[in-house]
Specification:
Elements: H1 2-34, H2 37-54, H3 62-66, E1 70-79, E2 87-95, E3 109-114, E4 127-133, H4 136-144, E5 147-148, E6 155-157, H5 169-173, E7 176-182, E8 185-188, E9 195-198, H6 200-207, H7 213-217, H8 229-238
Parallel strand pairs: 6-7
Antiparallel strand pairs: 1-2, 1-4, 2-3, 3-9, 4-7, 5-9, 7-8
Length: about 250
Amino acid sequence: MNNLRTLSTFLLVMAKALLLTSLWLSLCPRLAAATGDQERDRLKESGQVMKEILSTPEDIPQNLLNKAECVIVLPSVKKVAVGIGGSYGRGVMTCRGGADFDGPWSTPTMMESTGGNFGLQIGGQATDFVILVVNPRGARNMMHSKVKLGADASVAAGPKGRDASAATTASMQAEMLSYSRSRGVFGGVSLEGSTLKPDGGANENLYGKEVSAEDIIVRGAVPTPAEASLLLSTLTEHSPRNVSASK
């Protein structure tokens, strides 16, 4: 009888331990999100992607980067099993500070993307995307709502190299120019049909409060995280001033 009681007590203790372990494991992702760890990792990864791309000879043309109002970086976007070519990615956007986009590169706002073309490059491997927003209207729209590329904002595959002499009429008239990198291959890519929008939940995780993309970028409502230093210093080094026609 005593042995049975001991065994029952042991099994009860083990069951409680397993239950507590299960609850802890289920809470770990939520705790990581709430503390902003995932968002800080995304900032660091985005900075590394930008540095590597701008350090290659066949990178984004200097004259196009100089005209960009905003830069969006979506690191390691992967295809998911949602229809043909469905995908989901998260990244960051930084813009020239101030209402007229004529200041230094801003504290980043977190972004999320969905769409048919994301993740399809180079056999569907994880792909880094960089999008230049080269029009003030497109930049303002991006801060306020979900934007469908090709419908709400014109987008074209960006030319690469030290100058944009090979750019097409479509790319020079587009509000956004998009690039991809996968397995070391970098080049322009069309992202028509994909959508982009501010990631409000991620901003709240990162900055500890609800804050809009416009407040972050235009009004400087939150301090810049240390993890954004590589992204911002890289862009400042390569393009310290906005030289678009409106400036």
